[in-house]
Structures are given as C-alpha cells and as structure tokens.
C-alpha cells in the first residue's frame, strides 16, 4: 500500500515527520504574513477585488505542493513464524515471513518511506537488519543488537525507514542468534525515480536471485555448537531462492533482463554464471558501474550486484549456476533460464567456474569500476565526488584473528572479541547510562597479547574521512560489512599492508562504492569512508558464525551538537531493555 499524503500516518511517526512538515509550516507562515500585509497595503475594496483571488490561488498551490512533496509510504505487515521446509530434501524447521521461504521482496523507489510491522510469533527474541540500507540519521532502525532491543516473542515492533538517496540491490535477514541459517531473509530493491536517468538500456523485466548456503540442522543446534566452543561444520548445500535446483526464470528471445543477485550465505563465497550468456555488470550495491561483460562473477558473503542479460542464444533452456568458491568439496545450485515457448531442456555439462583460484578472483575484483559520468540516486554524476583527493583524517587497521577464551572458540578484531551487553550500545549512549561500554575499547591498530571479551567500540568524529585497512592473516577468505554507510573499495593486495601500498595498489580514481568488501586469505583490503551519518554503526564480519563469536565492532560516529539536522530523536515506539528499561 502506498500513501502520498503524510497526514494519514503522521501520528505514528516521531520527530522525523514533524521535521519534514516544517517547510509546509514555513509556506503557511509566509502566506499569512503576505495576507496580513495586504490589509495594510491596499484599500478594502481593492484588496477584496484583486488580492483575495491571488491569495487563494497561491494558498491552493502551496497545499498541492505540500502534498506532492511528501515522499510515498509503503506499508508491510510481516508475521514471523516457524514452518516445515525441505530445501535439501530433509524436513526441518524454517523461519517464514507471511508463510513464505524465502521472505517477500521489498520493491520501492528512491526516498520512499518503508514501514515494516514485524510480528514475532517465534519462541525467542528476533530482529531483522536491512543490509546496505543507510538509515540516514536513524541508527534506531538498523535492527542489530548494538542499536535495538530484540522484539520479544508474541509481540510486534514497527520499523520506519526512509531509503534516502539510494538506488540498487540490497537484502534483509535476521540479525539475532543463528536465525538466518533457516530463513527469514529476502531481497530489497530500490528503483531510481522516473526523473533520474539510468545509465543502461531499460530491461523488460527484473529477476531477484538470492543465493544461500544451507545446513540440514536446526538453527538452535547450530547455535548450541557455536556456544559450546566448536566451529560450525561445512554447509550441506547451496540454494537459489530456497531451492538447490529447478527455480525457473522466463524471458523472450531478443529481450533484455536485469538479474539482481545477492549472496546471503552464512559462510560461503560463490561464483555465478548463466550458461551460454554474457552478463553485463551495471550495478554493485547501490553504485552504477562501468559496463564490463563477464562469463562468471564472484560474489562474496553479503554482496549484491545487478547484471543485464540479453536473450540472444538459440531458443531453449539454459542453466543458471551458483557454485562455492574456496571450498572442498565444491557445492553447486542451479536454476533455469527458460526461453518462452520452447520445449527444449537445458543440456549438460554445466558451465565451468573457478574453484579455488584466489589470484583470479582478486584480478576480477579490480575490474569493477565506478561509472564516473553516471548519476546514482541524484542527478549529479557519481564522479563529481572526487574521493581520491580528500585528505584522510585517520587510518584504522583491523586484523581479524581466531582465539580461545575461557576454553572456547572465539573470533576477535585487534584482540577484542565483541560481546553484546544486555543494554544496546545505542540506548546506553543516548540515555547516558554508565557502565555499558567504553569508547575506544578496541584500538585502531593490531595489538599484541591475548584476546579479551568486551563490547568493542571505536569512536569517530562526524564527517571524519577514514581509511580502514582489513588485515587478514588467516587462511580463509573474510568479508566485512559496514552499516549506515557505503565506502570506496580502493585496494586489494597480498601479505601485510603498509603505507607504500597506497601508491602501488590503490585506485583513487574510479573505485566503486559498496557496503561489503572481501579480504582474501593472507591478504589485505582497503576502503575509504566518509563518516557522515551520526549514530552507532555495526562493522562486522559478514561471515555469520564469526560475527556471532565476536568478529565485529561498533563505530560511534559522533558530535556534541544535538540537532535534528544530524540525528533524529529516539522513535516513539522505542523498545527498552537492560538498564534502559523505564
């Protein structure tokens, strides 16, 4: 449901709606002053005869403009339940949204207000996070345990989000415990406004593909294994839209289609390809890219892309393939690209994809480049923001590590393994509750010594322009995600990072923005990020078992000014828990 008139819902919104109505109040104030001045400027008869129609017309124009100026609202009511599913042929308990696995895809447009009422009918607390949605000035809506109290069983909570100045391919999933291992996830697509030029030929239709790894075990069994100090077992298979094979997408010969592909796996990088078809990359996580053509493409945990595919091959069915990267054995899921009207089935063999070649993947990653002349959500070109010329205010080097603490497996960042306190960090910060966390409890460079358990928080000033280096000294690939922002993925390299890498490996011209970056084994990756969104933001391993066991931290982006220009107040429906209880 879409409502353009905000008066239908303004009572359910806190300071956000009030602030957005201020321009309308200014218009009314201006008109009233103008009318009052006319009382003094013109004789009564002249005023009645000449100015009153003008005033009424101007007032009508202002009212119409006010209504049209309000961005649309899209309402969703989601009931979260358990239900039996059998993705790999074994009946098991899944998490459903309105009875669906995977969950429904959210389709919206730049600047829309998205209101999602989540009714939790599970037997434990639950939250959903919105992967890549920036939540401008509203970390209250981020849906992670550092910003939100989880929704208790048999209750509901309503998210109020505006997809401000965003376009592209995103996703959502549960952020609590190991819930996302058994469902509750889906796609989140943001279309450009009609007045904004899209830098590629318009497709006749779009397809959303969600690739995930899968275990035949219950999510509570997986969680108990991690809680006991053991590593998660390897996944049992891969899925495309909840199925290991048979999902079909139908198109017509000669037509062009947009494939939105997201890697929603817990642990597994994938390679994606379509038999007999080239894929033209046009968008990466909300940024328009140069149009490179690929036969296959690597997507790491948490990443999303869009491809244009033209159906130019002989009319028949073709395999869509997602296979695991850097794993033994290689896992594979398939779907079907069906040419409308054909009865010819897809034929083997499946198109070949890379398996372990790390250098191949790194070389491919460097080919993904920002389209400098294209606009994104706004009409100005992406390249008008010359990120490579901005002075860096701070460099942070984050090294992930495996640790044993109190006899149990943990993962750490700069020797701190994050634990979520009973009081969310954002609530403790907002209500000035002492004893919950310490700013800069984790250092901005790797440190020696044993790893410790603590709430892990790094402090930054609002509008800092920060270089973050992810140093991976382990033999497994890593994937890192930052909430509340996107960033420029400027460099990849092997070995240990040092400052000379900037001149040797950094792309400071057309590196693309994104919200999730991979770090190859025994390697480093560098990003540049403008911390222009005040709040408490989760910087985490997208590899979910590692995140669950401590490989994450929170970036406190802060200034001392209390203003709705920089951050909205706590919403009226704020859930309170821990020391923040009333």
Give a verbal description of the structure.
- This protein has 582 residues and is α+β, with helices and mostly antiparallel strands.
- The protein has eight helices and 33 strands.
- Helix content is 15%, strand content 36%.
- Helix 2 (22-41) packs antiparallel against helix 3 (44-69).
- The chain is globular, with a radius of gyration of 25 Å.
- Strands 11-10-13-18-15-16 form a six-stranded mixed sheet, with no helix packed on it.
- The model is unreliable at 1-56 and 58-68 (pLDDT under 50).
- InterPro entries: Cu-oxidase-like_N (IPR011707), Cu-oxidase_2nd (IPR001117), Cu-oxidase_C (IPR011706), Cu-oxidase_fam (IPR045087), Cupredoxin (IPR008972).
- Belongs to the multicopper oxidase family.
- Keywords: Glycoprotein.
Quick recap:
About 15% of the residues lie in helices and about 35% in strands.
DSSP E strands, number: 33
- What's the tally of helices? 8
* Strand composition percent: 35-45%
What strand order characterises the main sheet?
Answer: 11-10-13-18-15-16
Compute the separation of the termini in Å: 34 Å
Task: Report the structural category.
Answer: alpha+beta
Largest sheet: 6 strands, mixed
The overall pLDDT average reads 90
Question: What is the radius of gyration?
Answer: 25 Å
By oligomeric state, this entry counts as single chain
- Portion of residues within helices: 10-25%
Shape, principal axes of CA atoms? globular
The low-confidence runs, each spanning 5 or more residues with pLDDT under 50, are 1-56, 58-68
């Amino acid at each position: 449901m879409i409502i353009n008139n905000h008066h239908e819902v303004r009572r359910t919104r806190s300071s956000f709606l009030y602030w957005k109505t201020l321009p309308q109040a200014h218009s009314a104030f201006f008109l009233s002053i103008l009318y009052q001045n006319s009382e003094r400027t013109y004789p009564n008869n002249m005023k009645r005869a000449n100015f009153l129609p003008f005033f009424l017309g101007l007032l009508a124009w202002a009212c119409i403009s006010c209504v049209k100026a309000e961005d649309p609202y899209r309402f969703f009511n989601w009931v979260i339940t358990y239900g039996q599913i059998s993705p790999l042929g074994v009946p098991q308990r899944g998490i459903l949204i309105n009875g669906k696995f995977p969950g429904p895809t959210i389709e919206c447009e730049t600047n829309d207000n998205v209101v999602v009422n989540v009714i939790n009918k599970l037997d434990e607390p639950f939250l959903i996070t919105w992967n890549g949605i920036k939540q401008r000035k509203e970390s209250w809506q981020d849906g992670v345990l550092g910003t939100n109290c989880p929704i208790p069983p048999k209750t509901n909570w309503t998210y109020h989000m505006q997809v401000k100045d965003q376009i592209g391919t995103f996703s959502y999933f549960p952020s609590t415990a190991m819930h996302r291992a058994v469902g509750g996830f889906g796609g989140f697509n943001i279309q450009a406004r009609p007045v904004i030029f899209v830098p590629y030929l318009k497709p006749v239709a779009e397809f959303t593909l969600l690739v995930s790894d899968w275990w035949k075990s219950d999510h509570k069994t997986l969680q108990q294994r991690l809680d006991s100090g053991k590593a998660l077992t390897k996944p049992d298979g891969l899925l495309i839209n909840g199925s290991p094979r048979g999902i079909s997408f139908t198109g017509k010969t000669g037509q062009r289609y947009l494939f939105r592909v997201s890697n929603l796996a817990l642990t597994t990088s994938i390679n994606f390809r379509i038999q007999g078809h080239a894929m033209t990359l046009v968008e990466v996580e909300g940024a328009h890219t140069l149009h490179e053509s690929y036969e296959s493409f690597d997507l790491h945990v948490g990443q999303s892309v869009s491809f244009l595919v033209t159906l130019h091959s002989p009319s028949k069915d073709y395999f869509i393939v997602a296979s695991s990267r850097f794993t033994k054995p290689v896992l594979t899921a398939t779907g079907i690209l069906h040419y409308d009207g054909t009865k010819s089935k897809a034929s083997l063999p499946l198109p070949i994809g890379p398996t372990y070649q790390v250098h191949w993947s790194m070389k491919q990653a460097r080919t993904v480049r920002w389209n400098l002349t294209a606009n994104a959500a706004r009409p100005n070109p992406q390249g008008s923001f010359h990120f490579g010329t901005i002075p860096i205010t701070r460099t942070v080097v984050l090294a992930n590590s495996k640790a044993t603490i109190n006899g149990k497996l943990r993962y750490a960042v700069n020797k701190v393994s994050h634990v979520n306190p009973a009081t969310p960090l954002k609530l403790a910060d907002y209500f000035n509750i002492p004893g919950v966390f310490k700013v800069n409890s984790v250092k901005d460079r790797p440190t020696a010594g044993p790893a410790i358990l603590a709430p892990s928080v790094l402090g930054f000033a609002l509008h800092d322009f920060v270089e973050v280096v992810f140093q991976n000294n382990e033999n497994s690939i890593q994937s890192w995600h930052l909430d509340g922002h996107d960033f420029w993925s400027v460099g990849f390299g092997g070995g240990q990072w040092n400052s000379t890498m900037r001149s040797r490996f950094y792309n400071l011209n057309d590196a693309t923005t994104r919200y999730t970056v991979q770090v190859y084994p025994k390697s480093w990756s560098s990003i540049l990020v403008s911390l222009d969104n005040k709040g408490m933001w989760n910087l985490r391993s997208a590899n979910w078992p590692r995140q669950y066991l401590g490989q994450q931290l929170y970036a406190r982006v802060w200034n001392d000014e209390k203003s709705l220009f920089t951050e909205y107040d706590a919403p009226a429906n704020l859930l309170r828990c821990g020391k923040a209880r009333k």
